[in-house]
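U., I forgot to send this yesterday:
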Amino acid sequence: MRSTIESKLAGCLTVIVLLASMVPTIASAQAVEDSSRTEVFIAEDGSASAETFTADEAPVVELDYSGPRFGMTWDPAGGAPMSQFGWHFEHQTASAKRGPRFVVETILLAGGIEEDRVIPNATLVFGVRLPAGGEFGVGPSFTLGPAGASSAIVVACGHSFKAGGIRVPINFAVSLDSEGQRMSLVTGWAVRAR
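Result:
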């Protein structure tokens, strides 16, 4: 009787070992079949690319834009508007699916040129651009003015229009600091960096 139990146990162990050795192969085949997919990305300029991803990877598109900016800044409490001229650098990140784009913008401006002075300003905005073109963001701003260096928080919103491969934004921003607020209206254009 003991040999019958031992032979049945040995047979069961053999089946278990055999099944256990097959599990990684089955799981691996399912993982490849279930998690691997090809995504086609169509950039704003119309170019397309295809990549294959596994399920644990989220396909992401990253784009860089830059271009000139110009506009004006004014104090709602009074005072003459001040011109703004400069350059804009932008980095966008988005999933492959049609959805919002997460944007980091660096805007370098020089204001007050019409008053025979140059007031440098640097602003870093963290924002979101929606598929229809609406955008909003917030970030720090640093200015070196006649009274010295100052910092502020900027809240901005606007809309980006597409003209072929060129993006034309129109943005309204409110700068909030310890001395009050300033408002700016800025536009320009941006071209995708290659």
